[in-house]
Every structure is written in structure tokens, then in C-alpha cells.
Amino acid sequence: MNTLSQPSFTRLYGHAPEGEWAAPGRVNLIGEHTDYNLGFVLPIALPQTVRAQARRRDDGLLRLHSTKGGSAEVAVADLAPGSVTGWAGYPAAVVWALREAGHDVGGAELSLDSDVPTGAGLSSSAALECAVAIAYNDLYGLGLSAPELALVAQRAENAYVGVPCGIMDQMASMCCRAGAALHLDSRDLTMRQVPVDLAGAGLALLVLDTRVKHDLGDGAYAGLRAGCERAARLLGLPALRELGPADLASALPRLPEELRPLVRHVVTENERVTEAVAHLAAGALAALGPVLTAGHASLRDDYRVSCPETDLAVDTAVAAGAHGARMTGGGFGGSVIALVDAEAAEAVAADVTAAFLAKGFTAPRTLTATPAEGARRIA
Ligand code: ADP
Ligand code: MG
Q1: Spacing, Cα 279 to ligand 2 middle (Å)
Q2: Which atom of ligand 1 is nearest to the CA of 118?
Q3: Contact assessment for residue 349 and residue 362, using Cβ atoms and an 8 Å cutoff
Q4: How far is the CA of 52 from the centre of ligand 1 (A)?
Q5: 120 lines ligand 1 (CB under 6 A)
Q6: From the CB of residue 150, how many other CB atoms can be counted at a distance below 10 Å?
Q7: From the CB of residue 315, how many other CB atoms can be counted at a distance below 10 Å?
Q8: What per-residue confidence (pLDDT) applies to 214?
Q9: Rounded distance, CA 325 to CA 313, Å?
Q10: From the alpha carbon of 114, which atom of ligand 1 is closest?
Q11: Which residues is 338 bridged to in the sheet?
């Protein structure tokens, strides 16, 4: 199978690929900034994927082409953190991380195509890493499991690309199942597939890409993560995950003022994941709405990672009749999700667009998300 928009692998490399693999982007329903605190998350995979056609090379050369990035070439023996920058750094990072983990992998030819919007908080970076990881797993017969590949991809992003992300994005891309949300415990990677039948409940999940990506996001993310880790140390805990809601009142006064809202967000957010899962398990999908909106308030007021565009999208969607809405992903822009009655989806999206234009913001890009399948071989 050859994806239409993809330049022919044969034209690029002079022969056919050995196969094609796909890995999806994701939206997180609830559980934001909880993964690196070893807490709970609840993402779904998107139908949008990064697709990798690939063929093994035995001369140690990694040759890359992406419809979104162009071409690059590197010898795998030369790979070291930071040695490849720009988009090609992500695939290079995965090959480096596999070798670092002791897997005897060499070169390959890769032709990449994608319909995951980049830089929109929908985790195109994890989709790219996971597409490369799963392709390499098959090309080199590594036999690694989906969670093992997710850990390799996370290490690639942390240690090579230099983004200190938690494990959610890579686990979502590798392990989500169609029709379900992934209830993941980031402490030990135990997971449960929770059925989410939006259409059956007459609902739709709108994704509103605010088109904003603030550069301060990357440094701020690292600072927030460091703040959480400092708070855990001060409380004598391995991670904030160990703090329950009942401990909050006694824990907060033991912390410096600036760390208290961070801790409050993490503890209440873990609770919201539990609450959301209970609603889903009870088939009460619309009851998820207020949990989402409460999560947004916590990100806005306690964690302080929202921005005027995400706040406007959430407020407008809720005023237009959404059951609930929140920003999804790390923050400082990116995308907002809104849980809406299916027949109201267009009207809610139109209201948000009108509100953006009235403020002089760029019109958001709108998708409808259905829980899709995680990374897999497609040809
Ligand atoms: P997000 O993961 O939210 O989309 P990131 O900034 O983490 O945002 O990752 C976006 C980056 O990932 C892009 O700038 C690009 O370097 C890389 N990327 C993602 N998808 C592709 C692709 N299909 N081709 C080339 N590069 C890609
Ligand atoms: Mg990313």
C-alpha cells in the first residue's frame, strides 16, 4: 500500500520498502502534567497518524525523507545526543535510543508522511518517534513490546531531542485501542482500556487547535517539572503521585508558597482521572464534561499553563453548550477539546471561531476526534 501524498519510496530510494507502519497522535481526555509525577492519564489515539515506509540498510546509513521536513542522512555510528537537529533529530533519536538500550540496530531508509498537525499539542513528535520505533522493531526483529518501544521513544525525546516529557504521549501512541481511552498508571505502566462510545451516546469530541505555540513553553515545562520534583523531595515522597487528596491540607503548609498550587493541581488532577474513568465505566459520558472544565480551571489557575486563546476556546465552547472543555497537552497554546452533543458540534466550532476572530486571533483549526488504534504495521 502506498499513501497517495507520499512520494514513491521507489523513486526516493530505488527499490520497494519492506513494509509500512503507522503511529497516531493523541488527545488526552484528562490527567495533564500528571505523567512525570507518576500519576494517572487518560488519552485516546487520533485517527491521524505518522506513516513510515521503511527498508533496512546493512551499511549503517540512516536515510530519511518526510513530506513535512525534506531529506536527511546520517551514519548511525555517529549518532550522539544533539548530533542531528531539526525534524530529523526525532527519528535519529529513536535509533540512538535503541542502540543505547543495547539493541544491535543499524541503518534504514525511511519515507515519512503524516496528517497529524505539528506543534498543535496533538503529539506529532511522539507519533513520529513511535512510527520509527515500531518500524525498526520489525525491520530488526527486536521483539520489543509496545510499552518497551514507548519507553525507548520517550528516552529518545528526553535524552536526545532534549524535551523532558513524561511517558503519556509515547504510551498513547503505542498502546491505545480503537474505541477506548487508555487509563494509564505512569508509575508502573499498568493500563486498562476504557470503552468510549461517543457516537453511541450522541456525543462528539471537538478538537480546536488554537494555532498558538508559545516558545516559552519548552523552558516553562522543564521548570514546572522541576518544581513538582522539588515539592516531592520536600515532602519526603518519591513522586507527587504518592500524595492523596486527604493528605493535601497537611502537606501544603510544609511547602514554599510557590510550589503549593502545582501540588494542588497534580493531586486534584489525579482525582479527576479516577472520576472520569468512573463516569466512562458507568456509561455516563456526558458527566465527563464538568470534570474536563474543572481540569481546565486547575491548569489555568493553579498550574498556570493556559493562555488567552485556550481560555477563550474553553469559555466559548462551554457558553455555546459544550458539556465541558479543557486544553489538552502541555499548554501555552496547543489544542482544546470540547465534549459536545454531536448535533451541536458545528455550532460550537463556529462560535469559537467567531470569538477568535472578534479578538483578532487566528481562526482555530477544528477536528473531530474518535478513539483510534495505536501504532501498528499497515503494509
Ligand atoms: P507536537 O508534538 O505537539 O506536535 P512538538 O514541538 O513536540 O509538537 O513536535 C513537533 C515537531 O515534530 C515538528 O516541529 C517536527 O520537527 C517534528 N515532526 C512531527 N511530525 C513530523 C513529520 N511528519 N515530519 C517531520 N517532522 C515532524
Ligand atoms: Mg511533542
Answers
A1: 29
A2: 4
A3: no
A4: 14
A5: yes
A6: 28
A7: 15
A8: 77
A9: 8
A10: 23
A11: 206, 325
- In this predicted structure, what is the pLDDT of residue 6? 58
Q: Is the CB of 50 under 6 A from ligand 1?
A: yes
Q: What is the pLDDT of residue 189?
A: 98
The answer to whether 206 and 366 are in contact (CB under 8 A) is: yes
Beta bridge partners, 192, equal 183
59 is catalytic: no
Q: Residue 232 corresponds to which cell in the numbers above?
A: 516531592
From ligand 1's centre to the CA of 75, what distance in Å? 22
CA-to-CA distance for 121 and 123, rounded, in angstroms? 6
CB atoms within 10 A of CB 78: 12
For strand 19-28 and strand 376-377, is the pairing parallel, antiparallel, or unpaired? antiparallel
pLDDT of 216 reads: 62
**CB of 96 shorter than 6 A to ligand 1:** no
- Which value, to the nearest 10 degrees, does the dihedral of the CA atoms of residues 50, 47, 33, 134 take? -40
Please give the distance of CA 182 from its chain centroid, rounded to a whole number: 12
Other C-beta atoms lying within 10 Å of the C-beta of residue 141: 9
Question: So what's the pLDDT on residue 66?
Answer: 98
CA of 161 from ligand 1 middle (Å) equals 11
First and final CA of the chain: distance in angstroms?
6
Contact 71, 56 (CB under 8 A): no
How do strand 70-75 and strand 107-114 relate by DSSP bridges?
Answer: unpaired
Q: Coil, strand or helix: which one is 303?
A: helix
Backbone angles phi, psi at 25, to 5 degrees: -75, 180
pLDDT along the chain (379 residues), means of 10: 64 97 98 98 98 98 97 97 94 98 98 96 97 98 98 97 95 98 98 98 98 79 96 98 97 98 98 98 98 98 97 98 96 96 98 98 97 98
The number of angstroms, rounded, from the C-alpha of 194 to the middle of its chain's C-alpha atoms is 18
- What does the alpha-carbon distance between residue 354 and residue 343 come to, in Å, rounded to a whole number? 19
Q: Is 164 in the pocket of ligand 1 (CB under 6 A)?
A: no
Query: Is residue 193 lining ligand 1, measured as CB closer than 6 Å?
Result: no
Catalytic residue among 35, 113, 115, 169: 169
